[in-house]
Amino acid sequence: MTNQRPGKMHAAAMNDTERLDVRSVIQLMTECANQTDGDVSFYFEQVADYFKNEYSPRKGIATAGRVLGL
Predict the structure, then answer these.
(1) In this structure, are residues 44 and 34 in contact, taking their beta carbons and an 8 Å threshold?
(2) pLDDT, mean of residues 35-61
(3) What proportion of the chain, given as a percentage, has pLDDT over 90?
(4) Are 46 and 65 in contact (CB under 8 A)?
């Protein structure tokens, strides 16, 4: 038998209230694409398209080159 006090508990993961869902990211990228011009708009559209059509939570996020089609 020891006289050791129990350790303090803390959450090891990020709080659930700070989670982003994919729909929010798609909406943000689409809005950014609509408010910008030229190449910047094109790249925002590429990111939105990636999250709509190719993103899978099981696989994770692809490299920037793959997402942007470079």
Answers:
(1) no
(2) 91
(3) 41
(4) no
